[in-house]
């Protein structure tokens, strides 16, 4: 009997030791696998986030470059000459030049000030955002080597003095050439570093990110500087557009490095301490170890005293698994088991909760895809409109003289602010109407009394939202194509509520549409703005909303745009998600 007891104790002791070792091995394997999986998931999530931030950053950087290019052309058109003998003409051109540069800083919150380097500097308003220096001072700037052999270049983060004290900025410098190709000055746009940092921060906090230009210079960064010491040397040998690596530093803790390059080879990098990633794996391993040891103890008691209860939870679990789970279904699972079956229920519950999380993740993915698609379409129309407007300015400067440039620039400043709208895709109808009025006033400067227009807007519609730059392409088509060859023209714009929708009508008395205007063409020439509006409305709302164009030869064209009434921007996101889930 004594031997049987000893053998029994030895058996159960050996069994317990075997289970304990097995539990330790399982916990270690779980820790290793989950650490690897967590690092992979973290890298994938950060990669998607950096790609999205990179798209937004590229749009803003391109807009700064386009502003600089437009300013350089207009500076040459204004043609300020401090040696001009006519004092009135010299002062007028000087004021035009100041207004031109000031309008750029007022049109966006990103540009803090503008430095103009010229051979014959003048004294601008000391309280304004414009500073004018002698061209020889450029060679004394520490950033001069960056642009010495280039026509334009981005300048890394530096500190400048402002009326409110020192301010960190990132510069964009462009050399100025006249029509003969002679270099006569330098233009520097000082972009607030805080604005660029907000762009690379996105909607996340507590992240450590760096921004490098195409030549590998660090432009700016956010987060913990101590994590960023060895990043630059490591990234110099990387050629891939995006990816991630486990960076093992000698004098600091390990970190995960994730990067994304834009089409212009600007690189956005995020650095995450490795210990922050594997903390979840350590906690999971401890939980598994604790739960496993508890399960062993409970298992022994269950084996000796309540062996018949083994079948009850198995039947219960099988009954739940045989049903088709709905959202919130796991709430009905028993939560009073503290043994191995409790682990099974917890595992099944986690699996169902994971499925719900995946559904939510799919919804978020649809939203990101939609935003990227809409922003890409929206970004394409801005340069199209900008170039057309600049052509009008150039024509006006040559044909009518310089005295009207100030008024045009003022109207354009309003249009650009509304057209950019800080990256917002939806704007109030009141802003859209202001944008249209500014455009028509610019055209009236060219046409004079030969162009007339009326705009009627239902007061209750002004606070509703509309995709920005929806109406202007149709008005532009009316003027460029509808009034082509005409001595005068008239445009009417009407905005009214129709049941739960809102209707925009744009009518002109031009030449009308060609009979084959709606037929597909071999080459896509013209009508780009109209196509862009149609594609955006289709992406936002789908049928029955859209654009309808009717015309009779010689009697003008009527454009009808039907949209839903949008009280707040989130309505568009909800509508888009519902439509996609039904599809």
Automatic annotation (TrEMBL):
Statement: the UniProt record of this protein carries the keyword rRNA-binding: no
Gene3D superfamilies: 6.10.340.10, Histidine kinase-like ATPase, C-terminal domain (3.30.565.10)
Transmembrane residue ranges: 284-306
The reaction(s) this protein catalyses: ATP + protein L-histidine = ADP + protein N-phospho-L-histidine
Key word Cell cycle present: no
Residue span, Histidine kinase/HSP90-like ATPase domain: 470-565
UniProt keyword list: Coiled coil, Kinase, Membrane, Transferase, Transmembrane, Transmembrane helix, Two-component regulatory system
Coiled coil regions, renumbered to chain: 345-375
Source species, domain of life: Bacteria
All copies of domain Signal transduction histidine kinase internal region, residue ranges: 372-451
EC category name: transferase
Gene Ontology molecular-function annotations: protein histidine kinase activity
The enzyme's E.C. designation: 2.7.13.3
Protein name: histidine kinase
């Amino acid at each position: 009997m004594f031997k049987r007891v000893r053998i029994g104790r030895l058996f159960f002791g050996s069994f317990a030791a075997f289970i304990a070792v097995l539990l330790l091995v399982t916990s270690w394997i779980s820790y290793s696998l989950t650490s690897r999986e967590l690092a992979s998931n973290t890298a994938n999530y950060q990669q998607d986030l950096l790609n999205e931030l990179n798209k937004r950053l590229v749009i803003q950087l391109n807009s700064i470059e386009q502003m600089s290019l437009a300013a350089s052309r207009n500076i040459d058109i204004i043609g300020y000459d401090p040696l001009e003998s006519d004092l009135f003409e010299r002062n007028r051109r000087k004021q035009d030049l100041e207004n031109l540069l000031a309008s750029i800083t007022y049109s966006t919150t990103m540009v803090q000030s503008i430095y103009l380097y010229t051979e014959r500097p003048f004294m601008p308003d000391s309280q304004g955002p414009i500073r004018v220096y002698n061209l020889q001072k450029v060679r004394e700037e520490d950033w001069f080597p960056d642009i010495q052999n280039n026509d334009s270049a981005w300048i890394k983060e530096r500190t400048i003095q402002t009326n409110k004290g020192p301010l960190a900025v990132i510069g964009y410098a462009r050399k100025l050439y006249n029509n003969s190709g002679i270099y006569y000055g330098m233009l520097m746009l000082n972009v607030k570093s805080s604005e660029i940092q907000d762009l690379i921060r996105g909607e996340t906090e507590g992240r450590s990110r760096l921004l490098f230009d195409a030549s590998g210079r660090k432009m700016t960064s956010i987060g913990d500087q101590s994590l960023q010491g060895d990043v630059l040397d490591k990234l110099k040998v990387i050629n891939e557009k995006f990816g991630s690596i486990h960076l093992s530093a000698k004098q600091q803790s390990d970190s995960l490095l994730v990067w994304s390059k834009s089409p212009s080879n600007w690189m956005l990098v995020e650095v995450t301490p490795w210990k922050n990633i594997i903390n979840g794996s350590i906690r999971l391993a401890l939980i598994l170890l604790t739960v496993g040891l508890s399960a062993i103890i409970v298992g022994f008691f269950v084996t000796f005293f309540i062996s018949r209860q083994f079948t009850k939870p198995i039947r219960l679990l099988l009954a739940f698994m045989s049903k088709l789970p709905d959202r919130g279904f796991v709430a009905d699972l028993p939560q009073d088991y503290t043994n191995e079956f409790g682990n099974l229920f917890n595992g099944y519950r986690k699996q169902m909760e994971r499925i719900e999380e995946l559904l939510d993740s799919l919804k978020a993915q649809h939203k990101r895809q939609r935003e990227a698609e809409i922003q890409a379409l929206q970004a394409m129309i801005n340069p199209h409109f900008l170039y057309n407007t600049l052509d009008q300015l150039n024509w006006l400067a040559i044909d009518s003289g310089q005295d009207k440039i100030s008024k045009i620039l003022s109207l354009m400043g309003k249009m650009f602010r509304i057209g950019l709208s800080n990256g917002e895709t939806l704007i109030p109808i009141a802003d859209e109407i202001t944008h249209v009025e500014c455009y028509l006033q610019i055209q009236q400067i060219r046409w004079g009394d030969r162009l007339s227009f009326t705009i009627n807007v239902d007061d209750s519609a002004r606070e509703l939202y509309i995709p920005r730059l929806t109406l202007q392409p149709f008005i532009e088509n009316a003027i460029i194509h509808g009034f082509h060859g005409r001595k005068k023209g008239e445009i009417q714009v009407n905005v009214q509520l129709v049941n739960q929708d809102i209707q925009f009508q744009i009518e002109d008395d031009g030449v009308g549409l060609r009979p084959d205007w709606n037929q597909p063409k071999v080459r896509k020439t013209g009508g780009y703005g109209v196509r862009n509006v149609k594609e955006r409305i289709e992406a936002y709302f789908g049928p029955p909303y859209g654009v309808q164009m009717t015309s009779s030869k010689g009697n003008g064209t009527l454009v009808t745009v039907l949209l839903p009434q949008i009280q707040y921007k989130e309505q568009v996101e909800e509508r888009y998600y519902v439509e996609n889930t039904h599809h």
